[in-house]
């Protein structure tokens, strides 16, 4: 199972990064969403896979009676999912606002902070 | 010394800083008369140090201090021997006069309080520097003098010349400070000592070390920049942009002598070697000649004095490195004499400038009637600088010639250099101290008249002390010169030279110097013209070199920034991910940590189905031609991940992922209806190949990393802990939930905070838009 997931995680990363290398903000955002999933799956797989048995302690037991899925990566990912979602939402709004202000979604055209052909700083004292 | 000596000395060390803190308020209350109050601080320090003269002149050294950072073995300690004490007395004594002089000179200046503050801070730094025992303290105070000097030179910060001079001084002396730090570290490593007193007791250890030359060069890097030795001399004349009290105090009497102090301090342990006796006289001699020749060129009184200060510093270094006891004695005498006459002459130059409105020698003349007291102080100081009998400067000059006229080629060369240098300094002394006062009265911008007592007190006292010290030379030698010379030489020395001329070679050399000097004085205008044409022919100097270096640095950093930060996001991303791929792949390959070939996995068909859905979703996102396809395919891969979580025993994750994916798709749909998704990516083929390779390499790297990790044994300690204690101590059956709300509850709080802040940021982004749209007129006007 880990083998398949490893390959799948590699694919998620590749697709996510390919989209992030685009010049178009919207594709970059799609890439970031996929990248987030890739990272979550990576953490999940690193904690090893136990199929179909969630880490829940049945009644009448103090500890899980048999092997269960690893709870730690799940807790980490739960946090990560929520944070990456809020991050994604923020980026979406940011991209939208930038598009409204600058009138382009091409990153080459977004040169407000680092304008093209910037002149030398003053050479005096 | 009594038992109260230690706290009192410590108080003397911090008093200038306390006075500096009080200065702005005092100045606000008392205006320029605050000088009278503030001068009490250095005056008390002077008297405190004067109380040490007795024991120190008997050969004792006063050491004290306490632990500063005990865990690191750093001590705040002082070591006061003849050398330190003479310097401390000069600093506090001249400091008292300078504080008074500043009161008159900057009377009515809006920032006079700040000026007092800076100059007192400098005084504290300089005083700490000369009495410091531990290397660290020495270095800290050394740097502090550079910083306060920067503040003082740039005091008139509205002028570009001031700013440039301040920056230049800071860069040059700051680089020297780094060199000194390195030198001290080398010395500390070789000798195993971390204070001067320990080092001074280490005998020949340094000299015999293979690291001696490295330590020496680093140390001299600090000393030569601070003491403006050629080719680092250029910052000192530029520092004359500072108000005249600063020039008189820092850039003549005290700070620039810090380098000389360092060289003298190290003489007992580092001196007396071939390197020492070659490098020091060579640089010192060249500096002496360059300084005096450049001084001839100037017409500004302050600049003339500044270049002779450069020359005098050269002379001091040359003498210290000459390598005989006599030369050390001569250096000591000259240092004391120079502090007095040069401090006085600078204050005279400032006084003339203050009262007449100019300090250009060509437009000054006949001031003797208008400024008689100033004239008296000036001529006394000039006589001492010229080295005429009855003055302390004469003693110094006699001792110099007695020391270096010992025969041999090297000594003859040094003698010739000294005679030429001294003769030219003689000429400058009278050009500054005599020429503005005699002849026909010249028309000056302001109608010249005598300055107030605050202004003439300093030069008069300094000039007179040059005379008095020479008259009572036996006492002066016993208390000051001999202990200092002994400390510099590292053995007991007695100076016995007096003002009564002795017939002999030194007197002959003195006579020759004076004759040459009078000649140069009379021919000053012609010499100036010829120097000007020579300099014009050369056309380049370290001062211009400094500008070129700074500009070059700016251009270079601009160029580098342009390459590194070219403003193109795709390039930043590409570079980042190439780095990611390399960091992961290179060690894996280099250390043979590649994963082994896995066996073909055995999965249920529905598991394969979910994997296949994820892959299809991914592919569809990449190839999506329109908005809807892109949104839907993004949803597909997200839901596939949720299904995977579900199948792998993570129902909580699965629910969350379903919810988040749904929300994402909704928000994305909302935004994307307004944003354009171009049909294709418009990547040129080359770009596409690069992007695919980079993305592929990263994907490969992460996949292999994960494969390798899962093939290694797994440490379950932490997971087992949570499983075992979830119910027992946290009373929850869902282990994941227990971890989130209980074991790692604080992390979850942080997560909530992040989500909240993001929400606020989104709100802010949206609200800014709303505002802009409601005021269209304003928006139009702004564009």
Describe what you observe in this structure:
The complex is a heterodimer of chains A (125) and B (783). Chain A has 3 helices and no strands. With 125 residues, chain A is mostly helical. The model of chain A has no long low-confidence stretch (mean pLDDT 86). Chain A is elongated. Chain A has a single domain (2-52, 66-107), classed as Helix Hairpins (Orthogonal Bundle). With 783 residues, chain B is mainly alpha-helical. Among the domains of chain B are: 12-270, no CATH class; 298-522, no CATH class. Chain B has helices at residues 5-30, 34-38, 40-50, 53-57, 82-105, 112-131, 135-153, 160-191, 196-200, 205-208, 212-226, 235-238, 244-253, 258-270, 274-297, 301-320, 325-356, 372-386, 392-404, 409-433, 453-471, 473-489, 505-522, 524-538, 542-564, 569-590, 605-623, 627-647, 651-672, 685-711, 717-728, 735-743, 745-774, 776-782, and strands spanning 62-69, 74-80. Chain B has a two-stranded antiparallel ribbon. In chain B, helix 5 packs antiparallel against helix 6 (112-131), helix 7 runs antiparallel to helix 8 and helix 17 (325-356) crosses helix 22. The interface between A and B is large, with 98 and 107 residues.
């Amino acid at each position: 199972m880990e083998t398949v997931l490893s390959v799948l995680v590699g694919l998620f990363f590749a697709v996510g990064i390919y989209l992030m290398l685009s010049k178009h903000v919207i594709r970059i955002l799609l890439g970031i969403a996929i990248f987030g999933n890739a990272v979550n799956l990576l953490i999940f797989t690193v904690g090893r896979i136990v199929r179909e048995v969630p880490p829940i302690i049945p009644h009448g037991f103090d500890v899980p009676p048999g092997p269960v899925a690893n709870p730690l990566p799940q807790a980490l990912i739960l946090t990560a999912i929520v944070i990456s979602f809020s991050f994604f939402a923020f980026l979406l709004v940011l991209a939208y606002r930038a598009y409204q202000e600058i009138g382009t979604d091409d990153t080459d055209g977004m040169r407000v902070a680092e304008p093209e052909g910037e002149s030398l700083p003053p050479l005096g004292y | 010394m009594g038992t109260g000596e230690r706290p009192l000395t410590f108080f003397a060390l911090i008093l200038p800083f306390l006075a500096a803190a009080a200065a702005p308020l005092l100045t606000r209350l008392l205006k320029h008369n605050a000088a009278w109050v503030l001068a009490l601080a250095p005056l008390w320090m002077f008297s405190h140090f004067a109380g040490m003269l007795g024991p120190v002149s008997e050969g004792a050294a006063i050491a004290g201090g306490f632990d500063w950072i005990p865990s690191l073995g750093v001590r705040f300690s002082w070591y006061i021997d003849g050398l330190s004490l003479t310097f401390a007395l000069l600093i506090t004594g001249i400091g008292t006069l300078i504080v008074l002089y500043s009161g008159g000179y900057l009377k009515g200046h809006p920032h006079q309080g700040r000026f007092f503050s800076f100059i007192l801070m400098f005084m504290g730094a300089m005083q700490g520097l000369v009495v410091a025992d531990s290397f660290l303290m020495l270095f800290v105070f050394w740097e502090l003098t550079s910083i306060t000097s920067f503040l003082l030179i740039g005091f008139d910060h509205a002028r570009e010349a001031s700013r440039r001079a301040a920056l230049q001084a800071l860069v040059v002396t700051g680089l020297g400070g780094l060199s000194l730090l390195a030198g001290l570290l080398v010395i500390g490593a070789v000798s195993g000592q971390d204070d001067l007193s320990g080092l001074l007791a280490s005998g020949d250890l340094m000299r015999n070390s293979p690291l001696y030359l490295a330590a020496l060069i680093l140390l001299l890097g600090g000393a030569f920049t601070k003491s403006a030795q050629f080719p680092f001399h250029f910052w000192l004349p530029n520092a004359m942009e500072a108000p005249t009290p600063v020039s008189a105090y820092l850039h003549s009497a005290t700070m620039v002598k810090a380098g000389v102090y360092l060289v003298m301090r190290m003489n007992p342990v580092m001196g007396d070697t071939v390197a020492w006796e070659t490098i020091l006289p060579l640089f010192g001699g060249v500096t002496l000649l360059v300084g005096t020749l450049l001084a001839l060129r100037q017409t500004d009184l302050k600049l003339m004095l500044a270049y002779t200060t450069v020359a005098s510093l050269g002379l001091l270094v040359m003498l210290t490195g000459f390598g005989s006891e006599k030369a050390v004695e001569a250096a000591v005498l000259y240092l004391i004499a120079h502090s007095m006459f040069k401090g006085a002459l600078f204050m005279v130059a400032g006084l003339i400038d203050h009262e007449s409105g100019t300090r250009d020698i060509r437009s000054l003349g006949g001031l003797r009637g208008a400024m008689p007291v100033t004239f008296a102080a000036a001529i006394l100081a000039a006589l001492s600088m010229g080295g005429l009998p009855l003055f302390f400067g004469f003693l110094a000059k006699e001792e110099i010639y007695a020391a270096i006229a010992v025969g041999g080629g090297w000594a003859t060369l040094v003698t010739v250099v000294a005679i030429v240098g001294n003769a030219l300094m003689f000429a400058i002394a009278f050009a500054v101290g005599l020429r503005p006062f005699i002849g026909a009265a010249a028309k000056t911008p302001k109608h010249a008249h005598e300055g107030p007592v605050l202004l003439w007190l300093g030069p008069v006292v300094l000039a007179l002390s040059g005379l008095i010290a020479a008259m009572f030379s036996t006492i002066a030698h016993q208390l000051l010169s001999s202990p200092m010379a002994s400390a510099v030489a590292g053995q007991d020395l007695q100076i016995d030279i007096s003002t009564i001329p002795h017939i002999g070679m030194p007197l002959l050399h003195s006579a020759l110097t004076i004759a040459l000097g009078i000649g140069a004085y009379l021919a000053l205008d012609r010499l100036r013209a010829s120097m000007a044409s020579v300099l014009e022919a050369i056309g380049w100097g370290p001062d211009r070199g400094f500008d070129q270096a700074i500009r070059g640095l700016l251009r270079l950093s601009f160029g580098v920034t342009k390459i590194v930060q070219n403003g193109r996001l795709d390039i930043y991303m590409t570079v980042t991910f190439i780095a990611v791929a390399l960091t992961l792949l290179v060690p894996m390959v280099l250390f043979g940590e590649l994963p082994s070939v896995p066996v073909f996995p055995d999965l249920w068909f529905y598991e394969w189905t979910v994997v296949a859905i994820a892959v299809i979703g991914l592919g569809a996102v990449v190839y999506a031609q329109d908005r809807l396809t892109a949104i839907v395919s993004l949803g597909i891969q997200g839901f596939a991940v949720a299904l995977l979580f579900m199948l792998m025993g993570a129902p909580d994750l699965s629910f969350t992922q379903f919810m988040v994916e749904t929300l994402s798709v909704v928000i994305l749909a909302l935004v994307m209806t307004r944003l354009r998704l171009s049909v294709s990516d418009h990547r040129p083929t080359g770009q596409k190949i690069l992007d695919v390779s980079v993305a592929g390499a990263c994907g490969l790297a992460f996949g292999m990393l994960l494969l390798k990790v899962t093939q290694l044994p797994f440490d379950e300690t932490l997971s087992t802990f949570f499983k075992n204690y979830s119910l027992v101590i946290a009373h929850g059956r869902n282990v994941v939930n227990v971890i989130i709300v209980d074991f790692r509850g604080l992390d979850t709080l942080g997560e909530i905070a992040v989500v909240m802040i993001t929400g606020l940021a989104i709100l802010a982004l949206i609200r800014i838009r709303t505002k802009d749209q409601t005021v269209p007129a304003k928006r139009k006007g702004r564009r």
